[in-house]
Amino acid sequence: QNVLQMNAIHSNYSDPNNLKFEEIKIFGLFPEITAVSVSQNNVELDYPLNVTYDRLREVAYIRGLQLELGKSYTVKWSQSRNIHERFNCYPGPDPTREKCEKLGCAWEVTVYPDVPPCYYNSSNPYSIGNVNYSSAGIVATLSLDKAKVRANEAATAPISTLGLEVKYHLNNMLQFKIYDYQTPRYEVPVPLNLPSSPTSTSQDRLYEVTLQLKPFGIQIRRKSTGKVIWDSALPTFTFSDMFIQISTRLASQYIYGFGETEHTTFRHDMNWHTWGMFTRDQPPTYKLNSYGYQPFYMALEEDGNAHGVLLLNSNAMDVTFQPTPALTYRTTGGILDFYMFLGPTPELVVQEYTALVGRPVMPAYWSLGFQLCRYGYGNDSEIAQLVEEMKAARIPYDVQYTDIDYMERQVDFTLDTRFAGLPALINKIKGEGMRFIIILDPAISGNETNYPAFTRGVENDVFIKRPDTNEIIYSKVWSFLPNVQVNESLPHETQVELYAAHAAFPDFFRNSTVEWWKKEILEVYNNPINASRSLKFDGLWIDMNEPAAFVNGAVDGCRNDLLNHPPYMPHLGYRSEGLSYKSPCMEGQQYLADGTPVRHYDVHNLYGWSQTKPTLDALQSVTKERGIVVTRSTYPSSGRWAGHWLGDNKATWDQLPKSVIGMLEFSLFGISYTGADICGFFQDSEYELCLRWMQLGAFYPYSRNHNQKGTRVSWN
User: Fold this and answer.
1) Which residues form the P-type domain (predicted)?
2) What's the mean pLDDT in 378-390?
């Protein structure tokens, strides 16, 4: 292996022209060559050689040889065993040699625990054919070499023929899409601002695209510098029903973005870190997927140019960085639909990205002021006293909130008797120049005897159901049962088990749900039965819209194990619990606005996104003002309609710098109205911590002090 033996069988020939072999090309070589030796009659020859390697084509060039005709030579070369070039062949839990070799991959454990012991040692099994180039882009087909297919389960068996489309939309933006053109698959229904036909020109494009035919790969190069900024000619590519994987070499180590997860640095650490993306009610914690789903990154190239990449996919996903530098995407469904933005400055990358997904919402002027909130206000008198004390202390503030406390048993669109004076209080503080925001959760109680929101929801068929049935999928969230005495000293899980009502999830993709949601919000603002109970809010805060659930799946369990525990479970928190952990069942049936049925498995990460625009539309319809919506769960383009807070953080010092990182990331994502809970949500805050946090928080675009029930955040 790695030896070229050249034997001269007839060596009595004397060449009058003194011809010599000066160059050898070795095709299909991976990884690259690190050393070459040339020997004759077991004696190593000493002359300078020039060895180069084309990563894209996997071709090595050995130049500077002096191999004379009629003589025998031995050429040997050694290849790199650089562990940074390894691409993980078994990203699932508990890799073993047996599992690895069953996939046809190589196994070698290293002293570095993060380096994958199971790695690809052969190229990907796809090749390109039927290539059609035009001024607007490239169209081609990908074919599977079945002789090179690795062992797979049915749901992860590679699809034999795929379509490839490259579209040169703009001089600074292109799209490349890989999909199954023979069998329709779920594609993300989020509208983008794309030109009706490409408007770029060959001379003005900032990029050029080349295809590697076999094995398949796409290379994108910045024309002005020649720098390759995308190179997917790597062994990882596979495309199956429930497992899609693609890798790319990166232009540098300077990568920013992907979310929503708590990151300790703004620039990603490229040393074998994997980050999961799947929306979940998960307070900010290192390496645990949280409320939003943001598959966008920005890269700074070594020369200072910048570019951005969006993968428009909404299935459970993870991304792995390695020091090559390289990036691997793994997703559990949909298609691969990439958009690349050429900048070339970071500012231009964000402008180009938000031109595609939508510019950030223009917040109401008053919403730029300081805002005050707390989970655990006991009644409206407590809020009234707080407002007066803030004025007496001469602390400027513009917006007061109520959390779910104002509702009767945390049931949406209701008003508890303890807050009977809230409508008058809202009117009073608004008369003094302040504003008021209330919270709404998406889950609707199903255990009420006289609850118009649920009754009308059933009549309008707005709730997520089990597939091909009329059976609503019920979970448990915040709403408590009627006519029970809640013992708040019990652990939260016990309270949920004993007291929580069955809760149904509205399907906000449906037109009927949008209209129902608007009507329910209108009747909170203008109570049709008793006008004195109308809450004249100025903004809406939508929480728990991942959607969150306090039981895994449903109260009576999930019924499709394949969807709730897919063949590849991404690197998410509580990985062994499956996708239905703190979430509804993945088999839930939803319907797009045009009536197309979709599985919750595919659109789970769009739930908060689907609720956001209807909420802003309802707010603006009832208030006749711009207002503001603040949402916990986000997806690309959520920023068109809402701001975001970074969730249920802790009253700890490390949360101050982490909040800055989170806000910078959400600015990349096109959600610039962002902030963190000042002084921390969980745990008692220290005086000095809260003081410093108030100083920092004054510079948050969304500046709100918000805390958990029972925590201390005030001192005389």
Assistant:
1) 78-122
2) 97
Mean pLDDT for 66-89 is 86
Question: Which of 277, 282, 283, 262 has its CA nearest to residue 310?
Answer: 277
Radius of gyration of the chain (CA): 30
CB-facing half-sphere around the CA of 712: CA atoms within 13 A: 8
Q: Which residue has the tokens 């959600």?
A: 671
The residue among 60, 80, 100 that closes a domain is 80
The position carrying tokens 């449906």 is: 510
The Cα–Cα gap between 629 and 627 comes to 7
Residue 405, pLDDT > 70, answer: yes
**Whether 51 and 165 share a structural domain:** no
Q: How many residues does the chain have?
A: 716
**DSSP per-residue letters across 392-432:** HTT----EEEE-GGGSGGG-TT---GGGTTHHHHHHHHHHT
Using CA atoms, how far apart are residues 555 and 548, in angstroms rounded to an integer?
14
What phi, psi does 394 have (nearest 5°)?
Answer: 55, 40
Q: How many domains does the chain have?
A: 3
Retrieve residue 59's tokens: 């071709």
Q: What's the angle, vertex CA 318, arms to CA 313 and CA 319, rounded to 5? A: 100
CB of 230 closer than 8 Å to CB of 176: no
Pair 238, 568: CB distance under 8 Å: no
Query: Are 318 and 453 in a shared domain?
Result: no
**In a shared domain, residues 149 and 271:** yes
Same domain, 50 and 142: no
Handedness of CA 408, 412, 414, 415 (dihedral sign): positive
**What range does the domain containing 33 cover?**
3-80
Assess whether pLDDT exceeds 90 at residue 487. Answer: yes
Task: Tokens for 402, please give them.
Answer: 């109520």
Residue 30: per-residue pLDDT: 75
pLDDT in tens, 633-646: 999 999 999 999 99
Q: Which pTM does this prediction carry?
A: 0.89
